[in-house]
């Protein structure tokens, strides 16, 4: 008959003393008796000091109240009580111990087995502190509500968003605090739906809420049901993000976009723009572009026929302007300019061309990559037509002015070798220059020996006018013609004397008739 092999026999007392767990017995006064050697290693107290020590005297003040201890009934330990407490050691430091206790009522004793959970508990505490710090600083509200108990948790973020302190909301219904009329019943129904699982956990819901001071805020809510160990839903965890400013910015952006679209629809101008697919090649001809409705109206095309890429857009540019437009575009990108303007012609669907002013506006990153480029297209066909009309009118005016100048400086050949320049009106510097050019040109061309300046039509002669006329006379003598001045009125002659203008060797005669006689007589010699 085979016998069952037996392992080494261990003295129960030796096992008790050397086991890593802390064994002891507590009496009805919670005094420690029969501690094993593990107590010395963990707490630093001798066994003699531990014998008869009241457990409450060594527990952390927060753990002395049994109702505040973390306790549970262990199913694995057949109904034993499991608690976690902090024990003050011989060096006055606290260590976390997990107690597994079984009460022997007939003897009035509690058999205890404890173990140090300092490391895992420290990690748990650290994690809890981190979580608490996060919840305190997080820009979101974290709220826990329970059926029949109302609000049971209220984070610092909730205080900042809604204005209520934690003490003001605990035990109250959330719908009575922050839900705007007439939503409360709807929110209550939604809460039941979350707890019942009819609304998926985590679905985002945006609602308007009321703060303590009556302000309206827009919050994005994420809700999830909370269950107990048996799987029964006991409440809801809600996370709320204040989206008030985001919604305001979105509303402003939508309003701005609507205003821009309305403006572009009503404008005679157009726009095309794009965000580069490849920032390293922002001028890629295959780059897709956006074309506004205003631009399609300018070109007389439908949205379906609008250019979809940079290459297709180039086809709408007048052939004579394409190279110039390409150079402007390439220079704009190469120089990383913020703005570039130029004028060109665009092809309309009916085959005609219209003049436009194109202005490139660009956004560049700090690293020099193109973020976005927009081109504003302004129809300047009417302006170009007006400029052409103005140029034609200016040309006509210039031709008329030239004719007037010719009439104002007539050079008359009264006899072979004798020229006469009748002067009428005021002689300013501009007219004097024209008179000199005309007179000298005629003297040289006609080989004239005499130039008669007839001043009969000059009512007043000042120093400036006299100097200009004498300059003509001196210039004529340099090209071989003698100048004779005729028609000086008495008042003009008196002015010349008063001003002290010297006539030099210029011959002066009473009238044009005398001047002609003089020139003919001198010419016949």
TrEMBL record:
InterPro entries: Bact_StressResp_Reg (IPR051932), PAC (IPR001610), PAS (IPR000014), PAS-assoc_C (IPR000700), PAS-like_dom_sf (IPR035965), PAS_fold_3 (IPR013655), STAS_dom (IPR002645), STAS_dom_sf (IPR036513)
Superkingdom of origin organism: Bacteria
Alphabetical list of CDD domains matching this protein: PAS, STAS_RsbR_RsbS_like
Residue span, PAC domain: 203-255, 340-392
Coiled coil stretches, renumbered: none
Keyword NAD: no
Key word Membrane present: no
Keywords recorded for this protein, A-Z: Phosphoprotein
Signal peptide: none
Residue ranges annotated for the PAS domain, each copy included: 13-78, 127-175
Pfam families according to UniProt: PAS_3, PAS_9, STAS
STAS domain segment(s): 408-519
Protein name per the record: PAS domain S-box protein
Lineage: Bacteria, Pseudomonadati, Myxococcota, Polyangia, Polyangiales
């Amino acid at each position: 008959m085979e016998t069952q092999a037996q392992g080494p026999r261990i003295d129960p007392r030796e096992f008790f003393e050397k086991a890593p767990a802390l064994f002891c017995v507590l009496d009805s006064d919670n005094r420690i008796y029969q501690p094993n050697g593990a107590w010395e290693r963990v707490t630093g107290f001798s066994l003699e000091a531990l014998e008869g020590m009241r457990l409450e005297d060594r527990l952390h003040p927060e753990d002395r109240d049994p109702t505040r201890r973390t306790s549970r009934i262990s199913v694995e330990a057949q109904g034993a009580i499991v608690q976690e407490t902090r024990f003050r050691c011989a060096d006055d430091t606290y260590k976390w111990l997990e107690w597994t206790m079984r009460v022997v009522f007939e003897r009035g004793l509690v058999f205890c087995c404890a173990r140090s959970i300092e490391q895992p508990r420290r990690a748990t505490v650290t994690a809890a502190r981190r979580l608490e710090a996060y919840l305190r600083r997080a820009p979101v509200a974290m709220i826990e509500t329970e059926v029949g108990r109302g609000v049971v948790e209220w984070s610092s973020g909730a205080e900042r968003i809604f204005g209520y302190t934690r003490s003001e909301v605990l035990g109250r219904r959330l719908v009575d605090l922050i839900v705007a009329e007439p939503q409360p019943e709807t929110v209550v129904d939604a809460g039941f739906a979350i707890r019942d699982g009819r609304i998926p956990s985590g679905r985002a819901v945006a609602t308007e809420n009321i703060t303590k001071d009556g302000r309206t805020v827009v919050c994005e809510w994420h809700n999830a049901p909370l269950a107990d160990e048996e799987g029964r839903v006991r409440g809801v965890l809600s996370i709320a993000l204040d989206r008030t400013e985001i919604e305001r910015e979105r509303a402003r952006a939508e309003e701005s976009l609507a205003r821009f679209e309305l403006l572009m629809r009503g404008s005679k101008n157009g726009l095309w723009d794009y965000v580069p697919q490849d920032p390293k090649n922002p001028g890629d001809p295959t780059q897709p572009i956006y074309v506004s409705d205003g631009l399609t109206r300018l070109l007389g095309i439908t949205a379906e026929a609008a250019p979809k890429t940079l290459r297709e857009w180039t086809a709408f540019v007048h052939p004579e302007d394409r190279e110039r437009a390409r150079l402007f575009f390439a220079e704009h990108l190469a120089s990383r300019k913020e703005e570039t303007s130029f004028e060109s012609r665009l092809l309309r669907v009916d085959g005609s061309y219209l003049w436009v002013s194109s202005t490139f506006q660009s956004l560049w990153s700090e690293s020099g990559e193109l973020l976005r480029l927009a081109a504003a297209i302004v129809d300047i066909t009417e302006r170009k037509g007006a400029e052409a009309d103005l140029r034609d009118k200016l040309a006509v005016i210039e031709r008329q002015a030239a004719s007037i100048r010719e009439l104002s400086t007539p050079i008359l050949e009264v006899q072979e070798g004798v020229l006469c320049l009748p002067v009428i009106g005021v002689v300013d510097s501009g007219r004097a220059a024209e008179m000199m050019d005309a007179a000298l040109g005629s003297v040289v061309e006609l080989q004239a020996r005499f130039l008669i300046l007839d001043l009969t039509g000059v009512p007043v002669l000042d120093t400036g006018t006299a100097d200009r006329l004498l300059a003509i006379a001196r210039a004529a003598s340099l090209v071989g013609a003698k100048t004779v001045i005729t028609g000086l009125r008495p008042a003009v002659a008196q002015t010349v004397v008063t001003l002290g203008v010297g006539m030099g060797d210029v011959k002066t005669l009473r009238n044009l008739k005398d001047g002609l006689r003089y020139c003919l007589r001198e010419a016949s010699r």
